[in-house]
Write a structure and sequence with these properties.
The longest helix has 19 residues, at 91-109. The protein folds into two domains: 1-62 and 314-352, Orthogonal Bundle (Hypothetical Oxidoreductase Yiak, Chain: A, domain 1), CATH 1.10.1530.10; 70-184 and 227-300, Malate/L-lactate/L-sulpholactate dehydrogenase, NADPH binding domain (Ribosomal Protein S8, Chain: A, domain 1, 2-Layer Sandwich). It contains ten helices and twelve strands. Helix content is 38%, strand content 17%.
Length: 352
């Protein structure tokens, strides 16, 4: 029988998250900004990167690993680029700053590439790729994951992370195309949510050090995630790390700190956001009409037997968002228990 999940409104979730951060001395405006982005992750259906991460974020703040009052600033800048120093602040704050700077620059430069270093985990990649799309721009986001769970192809040493990539392309009457993917078959956040719920993983997510399928998420430390597309996924993870890590003088390879198991060390997480102003390339309305046509052509194309419909990247998020905004965000019992325990520790009102 499927688990009955309590529904929590977006407003209630935002207020709870903000209260938790204020309880550990994050300034009120920053706490609200983080809460808005974290709750939006849950509203969008990114359950492994929203409030699920709150206890971990609070632990790291308490452990001194995150600066609660960062001076986020521009270190280097040219017409179409900038390098942001996040001063070890919460990744949500750093990436909101970086993305807004990319959008601002792309309005005049046409294309803007903004990198960030000395940041932290910032939630799902699509949050930031989607921001330029709201300004009639294409958004492209890359990051170095906050823990290494992927060895080089054929190896055993954990030198790479899930290193996600997200692309958001606006359309006209149709919802935007939003691709958000890890370079591994499953993001590690999904492994953690499976473990919390006492569920097993499907074969193909992880492998143990003898090359056998690993399906128990509580034994995740005994193996590693598998890249998408075999060696091609390994190559993609490497390149995303180079563009978000090495280029920004952020942590990459053996320098990546496992923030799942370390609450005291700064991570120097690297991110990259690119904003592409569509009007620099063609008439905006013509572009959107072309996108609508393409989306409909794909959706209405012939299907294999047994296939109910052809989906496009972002459709699941669009459907989840509509449901969650209307009916509330479903919260598994194990997660609610963890959040209410956190509330007790922080002496704030419980979520349920």
């Amino acid at each position: 029988m499927a688990e009955q999940k309590q529904r929590i409104s977006g407003d209630k979730l935002r207020a709870f998250i903000a209260a938790a951060f204020e309880a550990v001395d994050v300034p009120r405006n920053d706490a609200r900004t983080i809460a808005q982005l974290m709750a939006q992750a849950d509203i969008n259906g990114s359950e492994g990167h929203g409030v699920f991460r709150l206890p971990q974020y609070i632990r790291r703040i308490k452990g001194g690993a995150v600066n609660v009052k960062p001076d986020i600033c521009i270190e280097r800048e040219m017409a179409g680029m900038a390098l942001i120093n996040g001063d070890n602040g919460m990744g949500h704050l750093v990436m909101k700053f970086a993305t807004e700077k990319a959008i601002e620059k792309a309005k005049t430069a046409g294309v803007a590439w903004v990198g960030a270093r000395w940041s932290n985990h910032a939630g799902p990649a699509a949050l930031y790729a989607a921001m330029p799309a709201e300004h009639n721009m294409i958004g492209l986001y890359m990051a170095v994951g906050s823990a290494n769970h992927l060895p080089p192809w054929g190896g055993l040493d954990m030198l790479l992370s899930t290193n996600p990539i997200a692309v958001a392309v606006p359309a006209g009457e149709e919802p935007a195309i939003v691709l958000d993917m890890a370079t591994t078959v499953a993001a590690y956040g999904k492994v953690k949510t499976k473990a919390q719920r006492g569920e097993m993983m499907p074969e193909g997510w992880m492998m143990d050090r003898q090359g056998k399928p690993l399906t128990d998420p509580k034994r995740a430390s005994e193996g590693f995630l598998l890249p998408i597309g075999g060696y091609k996924g390994y190559g993609l993870a490497l390149v995303m790390g180079l563009l978000a890590g090495n280029l920004n003088a952020a942590a990459m390879g053996k320098d990546v700190i496992d923030f799942n198991n370390d609450d005291t060390t700064e991570t120097n997480t690297g991110h990259t956001i690119v904003a592409i102003n569509i009007e620099a390339f063609q008439d905006l309305q013509e572009f959107k009409q072309g996108m609508d046509t393409l989306i409909r052509d794909i959706r209405n194309s012939q299907r294999l037997p047994g296939v109910d419909r052809i989906r496009l990247p972002g459709e699941g998020t669009h459907t989840a968002r509509a449901d969650h905004e209307k009916n509330g965000i479903p919260m598994p019992a194990a997660l609610l228990t963890a959040l209410n325990q956190l509330a007790s520790e922080l002496k704030i009102a419980p979520l349920s």
